[in-house]
Design goal:
Blueprint: H1 2-24, H2 26-84, H3 96-103, H4 106-120, H5 139-150
Amino acid sequence: MAWTYALIGLAVGIIIGFLISRVTVPGIKHQKTLKQDLEKSKYELEQYRQELVDHFATSATMLEALAKDFNKMYDHMASTSKELMPNLPEQDNPFSARLDEMTLSPELNKKVAHIKEEIDSQPKDYANGASGLLKDEPLSDISANKEEKIA
């Protein structure tokens, strides 16, 4: 029976000690408030992120509509400029030069731009083999070597 009273007293003492430590230690209350603040901040951050995603989705939709409207307006201006000023030379019409680029697909625009770059670039050197111009040999030796290669 003595052991039973000892175990009951130990259990009651542990429970009372736990309750007293919870009440008297100020760090636990502070920890609870910090945890609540952290949860609240996480929730607000997630809401902010969702609002940001929604904002960019709406902005992208609006920009796409704006681009379509701009293309419609440009096509309208290009077609009416040809109708209203039929005698205007092509180089004087500000819409004619870019009209061809606007009506092409983006892939074709890239290819056209690449071809235009090749046309505007310097010509390539198509000499077969080394010409020997940069060697220290006399010019007559270079021309003799070329004749031997040709024959």
